[in-house]
Design goal:
about 160 residues; 5-stranded mixed beta sheet; elongated
Length: about 160
């Protein structure tokens, strides 16, 4: 039994170089980020998913400003003046140039808090004719109560 290698263990071993570490920053505190009187806060977060399914760390930008790679179990918070703000996530492909951007537009209202969930997951790993890893990325605005509950389990992206 010691020499037996299961398909699942091979997949997990192949996926290890693709996985980012979990976030280590400060915990989320509701209403901690305060901006100007006519601004709102956007929280972008990535849940801490199962290690064997977690893809690389995607790149996040808000209002065309890069916030870097988003670690699993982390969040980014930023304030913006009232108006439309594009939140974009770019899939990283084996640590090469980020590709396949996906965007959600958030309407910022004075005093508002908006929550955007992003995630990059491993969909499949193939070993026939060389190793291939298929990943997908998701981005969506979530309701206030869901965003706050999920954000409570994250740490600041540092």
């Amino acid at each position: 039994m010691g020499g037996l290698i299961t398909r699942r263990s091979v997949l997990q071993l192949l996926a290890l170089p693709l996985v980012g570490c979990a976030a280590e920053g400060a915990r989320y505190q509701p209403n901690e980020v305060v901006g100007a009187k006519n601004s709102g806060t956007i929280y972008v977060y990535r849940p801490l998913t199962e290690l064997g399914l977690r893809g690389e760390d995607p790149f996040v930008s808000m209002a065309h400003k890069s916030y870097g790679r988003m670690r699993a179990g982390s969040f980014i918070a930023a304030t913006f003046p009232e108006g439309e703000v594009d939140v974009t996530v770019r899939q990283s492909v084996l640590f090469f140039v980020p590709t396949i951007p996906k965007t959600v537009t958030i309407t910022v209202v004075r005093g508002s808090q908006s929550y955007v969930r992003v995630d990059q997951t491993i969909d499949s790993v193939g070993v026939t004719g060389g190793t291939t890893v298929m990943q997908s990325i998701e981005i969506e605005e979530v309701p206030f109560n869901i965003g706050q509950a999920e954000l409570a389990k994250t740490r600041q992206n540092i």
